[in-house]
């Protein structure tokens, strides 16, 4: 009866060891899947975008190297395009992005460390089966009738029981570490979604600023050509005005002569009260320059009325 009890107890302990090993294996695999998913997302939404930080620095260098024509800033010398950007805000965004990226790295590293430790414990759990599988199957396997154990098998079963119980105790000692590692993973995983979203927003904002400042640089480089075009326009307008003034003067001179001739021939025969305007000289016309308002000035003017 005692031998059969040992055999049954040994079988149950071994079964428990096997079940714990299987459960841990499944939990380990699930944790690895979570880590792999987080790593893929981090690579796609975080790490692959980090070159943007250096791109922003290169854009700033371009702006710092682009001198501004003093005539565009009231004669002030030494200004560059960099003086017209909100560098402090951009640098703050860069710093926030770096810190968030580092936090992602730390979360992934902690997740990986926990899995590495769990995997090591799992490997330890598997050593019992690797070392005793043959004895377990031969002595207390499911196919064995434990009521018919031979005398020579008693001692091996007792030794197997002692080994199984000792190993099970060691497994239980590992449980507190497993709890710690799985708690770490469970605490980390919910943070991924939030931090990935936060980092993506930061990168989106940096990308928008990079594109804006690149366009700012390109737009400034186009200002010279635009100012030259406007200067040509002003020259054409002034030329047109001078030509128009000359034509008006010629027309006026001709009209005065015609009216004088008419009056010399007919005015003395007409009563002064009859069509007195016949004595009038032609109207004079003056071309006046009017300063155009900017769009902002127009809006401001409309708001004040």
TrEMBL record:
Record carries keyword Membrane: yes
Bilayer topology reads:
Peripheral membrane protein
Q: Which GO terms describe its biological process?
A: autophagosome assembly; autophagy of mitochondrion; piecemeal microautophagy of the nucleus
* InterPro entries recorded: Atg17 (IPR007240), ATG17-like_dom (IPR045326)
Q: Where, per UniProt, does this protein localize? A: Cytoplasm; Preautophagosomal structure membrane
In this chain the Autophagy protein ATG17-like domain maps to 147-270
Q: Which UniProt keywords apply?
A: Autophagy, Cytoplasm, Membrane
Q: Which domain of life is it from?
A: Eukaryota
Q: What is its main location?
A: cytoplasm
**Gene Ontology cellular component?**
Atg1/ULK1 kinase complex; phagophore assembly site membrane
- GO-annotated molecular function: molecular adaptor activity; protein kinase activator activity
* Family designation: Belongs to the ATG17 family.
PANTHER family membership:
AUTOPHAGY-RELATED PROTEIN 17 (PTHR28005)
- Which protein are we looking at? Autophagy protein ATG17-like domain-containing protein
